[in-house]
Amino acid sequence: MVAFFQQYFATIFERRTALITGLVILGFVVLGLFGTFGKLSVIERVWFWTPLCLIAVATSALVHQITTQFFAAVGPRVKLCLFGLGFVLLYSPIIFLISENQILTDEMPTMPFWQIILTIAGFAFTFGSLLPLLTPPAVTQSAENLPRIYARFQDIGGARVARLSVSDHYTNVYLSDGRTQRLLMRFVDAVREMDDTPGFCTYRSH
User: Fold this and answer.
1) pLDDT of 76-128, one tens digit each?
2) Which residues, at least 6 apart from 131, have a Cβ–Cβ distance to it below 8 Å?
């Protein structure tokens, strides 16, 4: 459980996550989506959209961590559906409570719960379906040029290592196809066996 939350917070505070979150907030503020452009000033839109986007990031990171750790064996399409469903189930009630009680502003009309669910589901599955387009293609490597750690894997096909993390005395290896390999070895040794593969550590155990 400790490793679960370590990875969760590492994902939230990753520089790429912060950059994407900032761009999304900027887009919502500038465009004034859902009628906020005409009803709220720029400052009010910043106050309105920033917490909503931060809550969305925290929720999506939690759902992603759950699907990655507990549903590693399923295919990418099933994982996408699980992610979208989990995000809708967790995020929709939060937005409904904020809207119903007009916590962030009293200038916006409240939305019925079913409309909130449909809106969030549309965003979740649309964004999720675009993720493969935003992911750079894996570099093809011959078996002779693969890092030494690949010799420890069992039947991974053409999948490549996406990231590493520690769980007790094991090293979890997350692959590009969504599967996970669990190796009984020290994290520092696993990093060493990645040889010259480029990457960076977001935390001492990831």
Assistant:
1) 788 888 888 999 999 999 999 998 998 988 888 788 899 999 999 888 877 66
2) 80
Q: What are phi and psi for residue 108, nearest 5 degrees?
A: -95, 140
Q: Which DSSP string do the residues of 76-91 spell out, in sequence order?
A: HHHHHHHHHHHHHHHH
CB 183 within 8 A of CB 152: yes
Q: Token pair of 30, please?
A: 């500038």
Helix, strand counts (H, E) of the chain: 7, 3
Cβ–Cβ < 8 Å for 178, 79? yes
Sequence-distant (6+) residues with CB within 8 A of 43 are none
| Residue pair 159/175 in contact by the 8 Å Cβ criterion | yes
DSSP 179: -
Residues facing residue 165 across a β-bridge: 172
What is the rounded distance in angstroms from the CA atom of residue 119 to the CA atom of residue 124? 9
Q: Which residues pair with 163 in a beta bridge?
A: 174
- State both tokens at 19: 């950059």
Degrees (nearest 5) of the Cα angle 88, 94, 99? 115
- The token pair at 57 is 């990031």
